[in-house]
Write a structure and sequence with these properties.
By secondary structure, the protein is α+β, with helices and mostly antiparallel strands. The protein folds into three domains: 106 residues; 76 residues; 157 residues, Histidine kinase-like ATPase, C-terminal domain (Heat Shock Protein 90). 62% of the residues lie in helices and 13% in strands. The strands form two sheets. It has a five-stranded mixed beta sheet. Strands 3-1-8 form a three-stranded antiparallel beta sheet. Helix 1 runs antiparallel to helix 2, helix 4 crosses helix 9 and helix 7 runs antiparallel to helix 9.
Length: 378
């Protein structure tokens, strides 16, 4: 027979409703008996009749027996209510606890745990729904793992020939294999730029998987952050000039030294600057500022570009997130995702403030304390 939770709640509610009424009726009966007995005693005292005294004794004994019986029944009913409440609560909390523990396992990355509940009610349906969800998530996780392994293997196999191609094109431009005409140089330079971009994309994908797996090593050294930012601006100067942007910074105001992996922090800055350049219309304005607190050095990069839609802000640092209605002409969608991993691997944070059509401000922080000269992380 199927007894739903709703039915059990109704039964328990009725029991809790009847129990106080029964106790109230029992108390009233005791008070009434005491009142009647008091009046009889007064009458008997007036009459001073031995027969009436004997009768009163009998009535008193009967009354005491009734009162004792009422108290015992009330006690048993109360005890039964407590026991019923405990059994009822356990019948609900125990299955819910089992489902809760299973959900925690999923949160920790274990998709294999299942819940076996046979209560023939809504809780059993909940357990079956959870098991179905867990099976779906496990299959999806297996597919994602296979896909990630495939991409990692593919990109790794692409990296070597791409690097060799870039090197070969560089040798051609230097005249190592003979003189080139201007037209040949022009074509080879474009081939080199495209091959370098493709190589960078492959490296970004590979590094993203390394950070996910915790296999990326950081070589932390003390360096001047202001000089690094100036170097980044110089590296992307052609992009800035192409869109005729204005770049302002406070990097010359004072020297800021941090201890971090210089190459990885440069990747973060280049990526954030590149995003600002790409998503800011012609003749835009980009500001770069460095601020220091007691514990962190904060880099702030702001622009007056197209901004980010509010519903995209939460996922802006997720894998393959674009965060804009305008798609990049070329890219992996991993730039901000990788930047987040790099910053967090240094013990810092990265975040963004943005309003659509009013621009964006990207921040990232790096711990300010400087310890030993060189530190290997990972």
């Amino acid at each position: 027979m199927k007894i739903t939770i709703r039915t059990r709640l109704l039964i328990y509610f009725l029991f809790l409703t009847i129990l106080p009424l029964f106790i109230l009726a029992s108390t009233s009966a005791i008070i009434l008996n005491s009142s009647i007995d008091s009046r009889l005693v007064n009458d008997l005292n007036d009459k001073s009749n031995s027969q009436w005294r004997e009768y009163n004794k009998t009535i008193t004994e009967v009354r005491d027996d009734i009162n004792n019986l009422i108290c015992q029944v009330a006690f048993l009913v109360s005890l039964a209510g407590i026991l019923l409440g405990y059994i009822f609560s356990r019948s609900i909390t125990k299955p819910i606890s089992a489902v809760s523990d299973a959900v925690k396992s999923i949160k920790e990355g274990d998709y294999t745990k299942r819940v076996e509940i046979q209560t023939n009610d809504e809780l059993e349906y909940l357990a079956k729904s959870y098991n179905s969800m867990a099976v779906t998530l496990e299959k999806r996780y297996e597919l994602e793992t296979q896909r990630d392994d495939f991409i990692a293997t593919l990109t790794h196999d692409l990296k070597v020939p791409l690097f060799a191609s870039v090197q070969t094109l560089d040798y051609l431009l230097k005249g190592s294999y003979g003189d080139l005409s201007e037209k040949q140089k022009y074509i080879i330079e474009h081939l080199k730029v495209n091959s370098t971009s493709l190589l960078n994309m492959v490296n970004t994908i590979l590094d993203s998987y390394k950070y996910e797996a915790g296999k990326q090593n950081l070589t932390k050294r003390k360096f001047n952050l202001n000089k690094l930012i100036g170097e980044c601006i110089s590296d992307i100067a052609p992009l800035i000039q192409e869109k005729n942007h204005e770049i302002n910074s406070n990097i010359s105001a004072y020297d800021v030294e941090i201890k971090a992996d210089r190459h990885e922090i440069k990747r973060v800055i280049i990526n954030l600057l590149s995003n600002s350049i790409v998503y800011t219309p012609l003749k835009g304005k980009i500001d770069i500022n460095v601020d220091k607190t007691d514990n962190f050095t904060v880099v702030r990069i702001s622009d007056n570009g197209i901004g980010i839609m509010e519903d995209s802000l939460k996922a802006i640092f997720d894998r393959y997130s674009k965060g804009s209605r305008t798609l990049r002409k070329i890219g992996t969608g991993l730039g901000l995702y990788l930047s987040k991993h790099i910053v967090e691997a240094h013990g810092g944070q990265i975040w963004v403030e943005s309003k659509e059509n009013k621009g964006s401000i990207f921040y990232f922080s790096i711990p300010s304390h400087i310890e030993s000269e060189i530190e290997e992380n990972g």
